[in-house]
Specification:
Blueprint: H1 7-43, H2 59-62, H3 67-75, E1 79-82, E2 86-89, E3 92-93, E4 98-99, E5 118-123, H4 126-129, H5 139-149, E6 154-158, H6 166-177, E7 185-190, H7 192-203, H8 216-224, H9 233-237, H10 241-252, H11 269-295, E8 300-305, H12 317-324, H13 330-344, E9 353-355, H14 376-390
Parallel strand pairs: 5-6, 5-7, 7-8, 8-9
Antiparallel strand pairs: 1-2, 3-4
Helix pairs in contact: 5-14, 6-11, 7-11, 11-13
Length: 398
């Protein structure tokens, strides 16, 4: 006599079948999604936008006998996370390029000084840091050599950091000001990087780009992907080609509202005018705020509007060729600088604001290493102008 199955066994058997079916459907679904993602990335790979700026190094700099080794050393630098300032450089000791244990570029100061030298801190981005220049020929080292050569005892520290904009420098300077041996004089050299960083952030979809660090959109994703212990799954999903394609379809059909965030756009003439105004207004607000803050600590802040290749006249042949490759950005730099100069006239009389934007005018030789950084000859001219100001000398710009 055949034994009949109990109702419970039949339910379990039926449930087991449904579980196996669910697993198969899930496996097929994931395989289909993975195959779709792969095919989209292979056959519909998005074409990245062209580089925003052509920062090729000038031929005369590349021809220097030390440059190849400097470039190799520079490629070995590494960054370390730094609260508020985003990052600092890790120590490195090279033949032409050195970074100390404190994360700052080496500055050559005399071994023997008087008992009471002026302590000067220089702040800025990669132009101050010394991009494409040897340790002995950064603005900091040249300033120290010039001052001390004039029997004006000074110890100069180069606090410049690669890629920093004015806002980051102020955070950094506040920390430095409360260090055991803070600088008495704090010199901020900025301008062109703030304009170009704002432009770069704008075209990459960053909202309110003025004053934001370079590549702010990338840092946003680093934090969202778990660096802070928090993961935004919507941001993770949007990394998928399939999700992005479906999202675009939904936007075109009006099912979802299109986002400006993290989306590359081409800057129009109107955008450039608006950005120039936003960047210049932010720059001037930072000058006023930082001036009050640092004077309140007993320091002497000095703010320098740096030279820009977009405004230099005359240009050397290689400078002109470099500018031709970036000529479409000349109008936004010129507009921002005009706004800053006009706005600086309304700064309090006691604010030490130096307009060095015309420092290279009338010099036909190459003073730029690329469209952002100065050649070693350019660094020397800036250092000499700063030295003259600190020594109380008068010149065409002071």
């Amino acid at each position: 006599m055949a034994r009949s199955s109990s109702p419970g066994c039949a339910i379990l058997k039926n449930l087991g079948g449904k579980v196996r079916t669910f697993k198969k459907v899930t496996l097929i679904l994931f395989a289909t999604l993975a195959l779709s993602e792969t095919l989209l990335r292979v056959f519909l790979k998005p074409v990245p936008p062209p580089p925003l700026f052509d920062v090729a190094t000038m031929p005369s700099v590349r021809a220097e006998p030390w440059f190849a080794e400097w470039e190799r050393e520079h490629s070995r630098l590494t960054r370390e996370f730094m609260a508020y300032e985003l990052y600092t450089l890790q120590p490195f000791n090279g033949k032409y390029l050195s970074v100390g244990a404190d994360g700052y570029r080496r500055t050559l100061n005399p071994d023997a000084l008087s008992s009471n030298p002026m302590r000067i801190g220089l702040f800025g981005g990669s132009t101050m840091w010394g991009g494409l220049a040897r340790d002995a020929h950064t603005i900091g080292s040249e300033l120290s050599a010039t001052l001390n050569g004039h029997q004006f005892p000074a110890v100069v520290t180069n606090y410049g950091q690669v890629g920093f904009v004015f806002s980051q420098e102020v955070h950094q300077a506040l920390r430095v000001r409360y260090s055991p041996e803070p600088p008495q004089v704090m010199v901020f050299v900025d301008g062109v990087c703030d304009v170009l960083a704002g432009l770069a952030n704008f075209v990459n979809g960053v909202e309110d780009p003025a004053g934001k660090p370079w590549e702010y959109d990338k840092y946003h994703y680093l934090f969202q992907m778990g660096k802070t212990g928090e993961v935004s799954w919507s941001d993770v999903a949007k990394k998928s080609m399939l999700v992005r394609r479906l999202w675009k379809v939904a936007e075109r059909r009006g099912w979802v509202e299109a986002e400006r965030k993290n989306r590359f756009v081409v800057a129009t003439s109107e955008d450039k005018v608006r950005l120039a105004r936003q960047v210049s207004e932010h720059y001037l607000r930072v000058v006023e705020t930082a001036d009050k803050a640092f004077k309140g600590t007993g320091a002497r802040p000095i703010f320098v509007l740096q030279p820009a290749i977009f405004l230099k006249h005359p240009l050397s042949e290689e400078e002109n060729a470099a500018l031709d490759r970036n000529r479409h950005w000349q109008d936004i730099v010129a507009a921002a600088y005009t706004n800053i100069r006009n706005g600086a006239k309304t700064l309090p009389a006691e604010t030490e604001f130096l307009d060095f934007s015309g420092l290279f005018d009338g010099v036909p030789e190459t003073l730029y290493a690329d469209i952002m950084h100065y050649s070693e000859a350019g660094n020397l001219r800036i250092a000499q102008a700063l030295s003259a100001y600190l020594e109380g000398k008068k010149g065409p710009l002071l």
